[in-house]
Structures are given as C-alpha cells and as structure tokens.
C-alpha cells in the first residue's frame, strides 16, 4: 500500500470502505428513528436504504439492537461534540474575562436556536431510551465524560491565565452548564415563557457570578 492511499486519519482503502459501510447503516437507522421512532426500525428497510448487505450489518453492530443502541448514543452526543469543537476554538482565542463572557453570550444564543432546540429534544428522548439499557447507559456516560473532560481542558487554560476563578472546579462547571442547556427544554415548551430573555439572562448572571475572578488584594 502506498503512502498516498493512507488518508489523514491513517486509514487505508479497505478501512475507509468499512467505515463508509458502518456510516451508511448508522445514517439509515438515524433517519428512520427521526421519522417514525425506534420501534419502527426494520432490518430489511435499513439494508434497502443503506445499500449494505445483511452480513455487513451484523459484522459492524452484531444485531438490530446493537445498531439501535449505536444510533441512540450518536443522537445523544453528536450535537454536543460539534458544539464543543466550536466552543473550544473560540475559547482558545479569549484574552480576558470580558471576552470569555462574550463567548458565553454567543453560546446562549446558539443554545436557543431552533436547530439546537430540536437536538435538545432528541437528546432527552435518547437518554430516556438508554436508562433501561445498562450497556448503552454506560456508553453514554463514558462519552459524556469525554465531553466534560474536553470542556474542562478549555476552561482550565483560562483559569491558568486568571480569567476565571481559581477555586472553580472546571469539570463540574462543564457538567452544570450542559445540564442547564438541557433544562432549557422546560422553558422551550412553556408558552408563557420567553427563554431567549428570561432563561438566557438568568443563566448569564449565574455564569458571571460563578466565574468572575476575585478582586486582587493589591
């Protein structure tokens, strides 16, 4: 195999084909789950939609349940992973506490967008589906932990520069903030609330109170 056949992820042609097959199956399962729910997922329909053989499905996922669990796990964390990448990039450019708070202001706007609202519903339903499945719940907890670690790494660098309080547990803060973004669903579905105003403003005030460094003693 030549160097030119290796992609940037270190995968050769056969490995790329295998990943493409797995992705096609997962995308078909996600599309069906989105359209009609988990219970309606049928192996024959998935194979038709993905153009993949029955043997490949069982090779990659072991069973229908394995495919369903993989789709649920991706539904839960896929959007969070993308959001974290954008957040980490912006945080990496922060040069002051004030700039950090502007990043959080923008993040609160993003959290309120229609696309993220839909993702929030998907994540809540995915979590509900995972609760009675011990293996899937363990997988989601592990993936969630990696999100917390990634967010904490970004915030820890700001902490080292004195842009946020030194006594803040940045991993616990990441968990708290993600929990807040999920809880916004309760405001989203209440017609008497305007979460873009009340929820965002209260959340921003809490962020400022938690993260603002203590005044210098000098």
From TrEMBL:
Record keywords: DNA-binding, Transcription, Transcription regulation
Annotated GO MF terms: DNA-binding transcription factor activity; transcription cis-regulatory region binding
Record-annotated HTH tetR-type domain positions: 19-79
InterPro entries reported for this sequence: Homeodomain-like_sf, HTH-type_TetR-like_transc_reg, HTH_TetR, Tet_transcr_reg_TetR-rel_C_sf
Protein name, UniProt field: Unannotated protein
Organism ancestry: unclassified sequences, metagenomes, ecological metagenomes
């Amino acid at each position: 195999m030549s160097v030119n056949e290796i992609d940037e992820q270190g995968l050769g042609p056969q490995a790329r084909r295998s990943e493409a097959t797995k992705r096609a199956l997962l995308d078909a399962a996600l599309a069906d789950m989105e359209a009609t729910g988990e219970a309606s997922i049928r192996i024959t329909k998935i194979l038709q939609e993905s153009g993949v053989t029955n043997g490949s499905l069982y090779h990659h996922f072991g069973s229908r349940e394995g495919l369903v669990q993989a789709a649920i796990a991706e539904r839960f964390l896929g959007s969070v992973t993308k959001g974290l990448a954008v957040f980490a990039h912006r945080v990496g450019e922060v040069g002051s506490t004030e700039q950090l708070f502007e990043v959080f202001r923008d993040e609160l706007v993003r959290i309120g967008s229609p696309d993220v609202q839909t993702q929030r519903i998907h994540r809540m339903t995915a979590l509900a589906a995972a609760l009675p499945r011990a293996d899937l719940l363990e997988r989601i907890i592990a993936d969630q932990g990696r999100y917390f670690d990634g967010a904490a790494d970004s915030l820890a660098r700001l902490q080292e520069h004195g842009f946020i309080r030194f006594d803040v547990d940045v991993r616990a803060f990441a968990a708290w903030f993600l929990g807040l973004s999920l809880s916004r669903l309760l405001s989203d579905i209440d017609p008497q609330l305007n979460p873009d105003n009340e929820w965002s403003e209260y959340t921003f005030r809490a962020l400022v109170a938690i993260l603002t460094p203590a005044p210098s003693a000098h």
